TrEMBL record, chain A:
This is Sugar ABC transporter permease. The keyword Transmembrane applies. Its main location: membrane. Belongs to the binding-protein-dependent transport system permease family. The chain crosses the membrane at residues 18-37, 75-102, 114-138, 158-187, 269-291. CDD domains: TM_PBP2 (cd06261). Keywords: Cell membrane, Membrane, Transmembrane, Transmembrane helix, Transport. It comes from the Bacteria. Pfam families: BPD_transp_1 (PF00528). Residues 79-290 form the ABC transmembrane type-1 domain. InterPro entries: MetI-like, MetI-like_sf, UgpAE/MalFG_permease. It is a multi-pass membrane protein.
TrEMBL record, chain B:
Residues 1-23 form the signal peptide. Gene3D superfamilies: Periplasmic binding protein-like II. Belongs to the bacterial solute-binding protein 1 family. Keywords: Signal, Transport. It comes from Streptomyces durbertensis. This is Extracellular solute-binding protein.
TrEMBL record, chain C:
It is a multi-pass membrane protein. It is found in: Cell membrane. The chain crosses the membrane at residues 12-33, 68-93, 105-128, 140-160, 181-203, 240-261. Keywords: Cell membrane, Membrane, Transmembrane, Transmembrane helix, Transport. Residues 69-261 form the ABC transmembrane type-1 domain. The lineage of its organism: Bacteria, Bacillati, Actinomycetota, Actinomycetes, Kitasatosporales. The keyword Ribosomal protein does not apply. PANTHER family: INNER MEMBRANE ABC TRANSPORTER PERMEASE PROTEIN YCJP (PTHR32243:SF18), MALTOSE TRANSPORT SYSTEM PERMEASE-RELATED (PTHR32243). This is Carbohydrate ABC transporter permease. Belongs to the binding-protein-dependent transport system permease family.
Length: 301, 438, 275
């Protein structure tokens, strides 16, 4: 036998992996791939409630839905807002999460446990309740935040940027714990001998971070970054709840909420689907670019 | 294979599969809810009604009417469910899409009529409605609210109409009199705000379309006009713009600061009034309970919202709910009969007594108004001529697309001037009118 | 290694951050216990001298609340168990075997996470209708299972990979069958990872109100907790006390779940990312 290290290979994979994969594939094919296929299909049709309930025949529109979407000024402004907002959320979440992860490794057990518990609490809070609480905290009349900040009567949801900022707080609040806990676990997993050896060589803290820890943490960072991008780009509940479905005159709309309003409120399922497809493609492109940037030679999935 | 290449291949394969499938005509699901054509005379009738904040009195009256109905029909059971208003959109859509879980009879907001009809959800009951002896007393606006293209799709259950609530204690203190013109409304509002800086003069909301429209109608403007069955937006006409200006001028530090009021909807303004934070508010007959529950009980009165000239009443929006039979029902005759029972004069009379819902029959309304002075200003407003949203399926989309609230909010918050905002709104509306007409 | 004043400063910072992070939760619980007059007071105070259960009473007066609660637990529990098992098998397949289309599958699992769930509600609705599942709890379990799986598989790979191959070799040399190895050796070793993954499935399922709103149409007895509490979240209702009490009721079960799995979660996520 040539390769004894790869036991599984030797035993001949054959059908076994497919057997193990079968339940997952059945579920995903039926409940995810098929609906996604339908989503794509609907985006090429004229498909409003009238078609759905059989009031009017379904017609094929080709790329007309996409054309209509791309010609819509609001779509572009919503798209721009979504990209910028998601990027801001991802950056803030990563920065806060990583900083706190490093902080966690530098402190004793009691403060560490307290910070950990508080973060888990934020993580555990359902998005709808979290959003509501944040709105309440910053309520112009009854919220304590304005009192603390000395901003009497300031309405956060009125201005476009302040409303986005408020939503950003809430998003970062509930999503940084994932980054923090994961990064913390990652840092802890670095063998202490490696770090000791480096510091014996007289490397500065910054240098140790740059040349020893960062490379070892890169795969973890990749995972949390991709996850954050995926989650923040699709943010829905926070915007929907905190800005009352998109803010004054739709100023705080993001793509997901926009798609929902098109699909549900206006029953224009085909336009909503087209937006969904566009979102999917953008996410794919972003992730692809990102994967290429971080990909090391020979690294595999 | 490189990661990126793989990804691209996978993707293009998926896309290709999608396109070919489309070309071969594999259409997505639709549902045929014309019903199976049967009209059974026994079995269970399913009814969905809206859940009110205090639902018990409503349920008691409905139970009584249902009992009378089942007593007349052997082997018929009625299953009434109360659904929260805020989940109605999803539920109604689900009901149209899955006749198996759909009810036979539903309560629905009258602004949804045209949209539901276009969706193919409601049954045309013109014949049965006209054959109903009580229907001749139905008032014109109420009838219009169940009518699309000349066909009747249900029976009006109650009308809701808005008028001007004001604080009697504040008015007495400041020596103010109920305003007689819209201009006086604005002046009074500013007086109140100037003298009592912790109060809004008149609570207005950027998302409160039905509070804003009377200003537009009073100035001779309109949402849209119909000609030969075709609708055209009218919000950018000079008269409409005058009305829009009159309303949006009320957003400001001297009455209702835009930073607070631009995002408010109808209920927010009512709530502000009920909490004692406003000198006046435009609220419905149905808001009485909410106002009484707040801190201003016994300290308010109601007058019709005045028009441009003294003695006029600004046309109000005729809101309210209807009952309709679903097209997918397999108990059509029974459902129609139950509809008549629940929307009939007797039930409406009782609903008024218990819930304050204004009857849709002229005679019943006059009769109850005589006993209950509170409804007098609302009945007068109705008699002066209430208005309704454009009776076209496009309205559902315009409403859901928040075209009008967006326009009012844009102006109130100073993002756009009246001309630009109303022109944009008109443009979006005309787009929708043309698209839905084709 | 770290000098004392620095550590002290770090600890003070950590405590301050903890306070800020916990504050919204504290305020939520506090407002739920405040009497109505104090919740909507223009002079908000961070304590209350007259705590009351009035707001909670309004929440619990909701008809059938207990039933909705159980429904929610049942749905979330089923999704957690099923997704853990299925994902475990799938993760084993993609990490411990080499076969054709492996990378393609992995990419598909990643792509699957990018689908905006909200946009899928309509196709999902028809699927559930055609399967005759509308109005049943199954119509909530299945979609959530599908949405939880890709992430679960993606995260679990790290744990399965972390189990040394020598262990597997040894097991087979000792005469263990593949099934025995899978369930009696690999499964217990991967268990912490499964816990970490369960957290995600649990949260997303527990929080859902979109599917509950769309798929449970006529059978109100199969509604879930968020549906009963949604009444309080109506933006037009200014009953902040009720909203906060409802939020507290909804958050507590998740918090309990988190505290239960806390240790495993931290060690678990560490495993997920080990190379």
């Amino acid at each position: 036998m040539a390769r004894t290290t790869k036991v599984t290979d030797v035993r001949g994979a054959g059908w076994t992996p497919w057997l193990y994969l079968a339940p997952a594939l059945v579920v995903l094919a039926g409940l995810l791939v098929y609906p996604i296929y339908q989503l794509g299909l609907i985006s090429f049709l004229e498909y409003t409630q009238a078609q759905v309930s059989g009031g009017e025949p379904t017609t094929f529109r080709g790329l007309d839905n996409y054309r209509e979407l791309l010609a819509d000024e609001q779509f572009w402004s919503v798209l721009g807002a979504t990209v910028v907002f998601a990027a801001a959320c991802v950056l803030c979440t990563l920065a806060v999460g990583c900083a706190l992860a490093v902080l966690l490794t530098r402190i004793r057990a009691v403060p560490r446990t307290l910070l950990m518990l508080a973060s888990l609490g934020a993580w555990a809070t359902p998005a709808i309740t979290g959003s509501t609480v944040w709105v309440f905290l910053f309520d112009a009349d009854f919220g304590p935040a304005n009192k603390l900040l000395g901003l009497e009567d300031y309405s956060w949801t009125y201005g476009r940027y302040s409303a986005f900022a408020l939503v950003l707080f809430a998003v970062v609040w509930c999503s940084f714990p994932f980054v923090m806990v994961t990064m913390y676990a990652g840092i802890r997993a670095i063998p202490s001998e490696v770090l000791e050896a480096a510091s014996l060589d007289g490397a500065s803290t910054w240098r140790i971070w740059r040349s020893v820890m960062a490379p070892m943490l890169r795969p973890i960072l990749a995972v949390v970054t991709i996850q954050s991008i995926i989650w923040d780009f699709k943010v829905f509940t926070q915007i929907y709840v905190m800005t009352g479905g998109g803010g004054i005159a739709g100023q705080n709309l993001v793509l997901n909420v926009y798609a929902y309003q098109k699909a549900f409120a206006s029953s224009q399922y085909s336009l909503g689907s087209a937006i969904g497809v566009v979102m999917l493609l953008i996410l794919l492109a972003v992730t692809l670019v990102y994967l290429r940037i971080i990909r090391r030679k020979g690294e595999e999935l | 294979m490189k990661l990126s290449t793989r990804l691209t291949t996978t993707l293009s394969a998926l896309l290709l599969a999608g396109l070919t499938a489309t070309a071969t005509g594999c259409a997505p699901s639709t549902s045929d809810n014309r019903g199976d054509g049967t009209d059974r005379k026994t079995g269970t009738l399913r009814v969905w009604l809206f859940q009110e904040v205090n639902n018990k009195p409503k349920a008691a009256i409905v139970d009584k009417a249902v009992k009378a109905f089942t007593a007349r029909h052997e082997g018929v059971k009625v299953d009434v469910r109360y659904i929260p208003v805020e989940s109605r959109a999803e539920r109604m859509k689900a009901a149209f899409n899955d006749p198996a879980s759909a009810p036979d009879l539903v309560e629905y907001g009258n602004t949804d009529t045209a949209g539901y009809v276009r969706d193919g959800g409601l049954a045309d009951v013109t014949e049965e409605f006209d054959a109903w002896d009580e229907a001749k007393d139905t008032d014109g606006t109420a009838r219009a609210s169940v009518t699309v293209d000349g066909k009747v799709y249900g029976a009006p259950l109650f009308v809701g109409v808005r008028a001007l609530y004001y604080r009697t204690d504040v008015f007495d203190d400041l020596g103010l009199k109920p305003p007689r013109t819209l201009k006086e409304v604005a002046d009074t509002a500013r007086r109140i705000r100037a003298e009592r800086p912790d109060l809004y003069g008149l609570a207005v909301g950027g998302a409160y379309t039905y509070g804003a429209m009377p200003f537009v109608w009073a100035h001779g403007g309109d949402i849209a006009t119909e000609r030969d069955g075709k609708f055209r937006a009218a919000v950018d006409s000079p008269a409409s713009r005058a009305g829009i200006t009159a309303y949006t001028d009320l957003f400001g530090k001297d009455n209702c600061p835009a930073s607070r009021c631009a995002r408010m909807g109808g209920n927010d303004t009512v709530e502000a009034f009920a909490a004692g934070k406003a000198g006046m508010a435009i609220a419905g007959d149905f808001s009485r309970q909410a106002v009484e529950a707040g801190g201003v009980k016994g300290k308010y009165a109601v007058v019709p919202l005045p028009g441009v000239r003294s003695g006029e009443i600004a046309p109000a929006f005729a809101g309210g709910n209807n009952l309709g039979v679903l097209r997918s029902t397999s108990h059509r005759t029974l459902a129609v009969e139950l509809m008549r029972e629940l929307a009939g004069k007797q039930t409406q009379r009782e609903l008024f007594e218990a819930m304050g819902f204004l009857p849709t029959f002229d005679d019943v309304r006059e009769e109850v108004a005589a006993d209950e002075p509170f409804v007098e200003p609302f009945v007068r407003t109705l008699q002066a001529g209430a208005r309704f949203v454009p009776a076209t399926p496009a309205w559902g989309q315009i409403d859901a697309g928040q075209v009008l609230p967006t326009m009012f909010q844009e102006i109130a918050s100073g993002r756009k001037d009246v001309d630009t905002a109303s022109a944009d709104a008109a443009h979006r509306m005309n787009d929708t009118f043309t698209k839905t007409a084709s | 290694m770290i000098r004392r004043p620095w550590r002290l400063a770090a600890e003070v910072t950590a405590l301050l951050v903890a306070v800020v992070v916990a504050f919204p939760l504290y305020w939520m619980a506090l407002s739920a216990f405040k009497p109505a007059g104090e919740v909507q007071s223009t002079e908000p105070r961070p304590w209350t001298l007259s705590p009351t259960l009035d707001s909670f009473r309004r929440v619990f007066e909701q008809q059938d609340l207990g039933r909705y609660f159980l429904n929610s637990l049942l749905v979330a529990g089923t999704v957690v168990l099923a997704s853990a098992l299925i994902a475990f098998l799938a993760a084993t397949a993609v990490t411990r075997f080499r076969f054709r289309f492996r990378t393609t599958l992995l990419i598909m699992f990643l792509v699957a996470q990018m689908v905006p769930i909200e946009a899928l509600t309509i196709p999902m609705f028809f699927l559930m209708r055609d399967a005759g599942l509308l109005n049943t709890l199954g119509s909530l379990v299945l979609p959530h299972l599908a949405f939880s799986l890709p992430f679960a598989i993606w995260m679990l790979r790290g744990f399965v990979r972390a189990v040394p191959e020598s262990l597997e070799e040894q097991a087979y040399l000792d005469g263990a069958s593949r099934t025995r190895f899978l369930w009696q050796i690999l499964f217990p070793l991967v268990f912490p990872g499964l816990t970490a993954v369960s957290v995600f499935s649990f949260i997303s399922t527990w929080n859902d109100f979109l599917f509950a709103k769309s798929f449970i149409i006529s059978a109100t007895e199969n509604s879930t907790l968020p549906m009963a509490l949604l009444v309080f979240f109506d933006t037009d209702t200014p009953d902040w006390g009720g909203v906060m009490a409802a939020s507290t009721v909804m958050t507590i079960p998740v918090l309990v779940f988190f505290v239960l799995v806390q240790r495993r979660l931290v060690s678990g996520l560490g495993g997920a990312v080990k190379d």
